[in-house]
Amino acid sequence: MKRFTPIRKGFTLIELIAVIVVLAILVGVALPRYFDYAAQAKDAATKGTLGGVRAGIANFLANEVVSGGNPDYPTLVQLETLGTVMQEAIPDNPYDGGANPNDVHTATAGEAAARTVPVAAGTGGWAYYVDNALTPSAYTFWANTNTVAENDF
Hints:
By secondary structure, the chain is mainly alpha-helical. It has helices at residues 13-66, 76-80, 109-114, and strands at 104-106, 126-131, 138-143.
């Protein structure tokens, strides 16, 4: 007589536990990499904005020199006026969750030297300082955040 073996219709508990363990290991490896990519994306966005604005400021200065005007860096009003220094609005600060992450705030000489957040401006956006007393004049433009090392690119 033939033995009858029932047909299996599902997974055993051990097979399910093995799959869950494998998925947990994959998640444990993938999540830290995801958070690292998010931080790298913020760094890259900040560096891109800083480079674009700094290039616009340098072009403004060069245009002032060539046109015979005063070789000064743009004022905050000129920096924020579209078409004067930048062709498009300054992008949002990726480290800022505030109401106006693309605002540019005037800073003092001390704040520019330390790359700290302008006290009167609060947090968020970008900070800008021009020192026309120097010969030649100098400027500083940085990300206006409270987080250490995120504004020092």
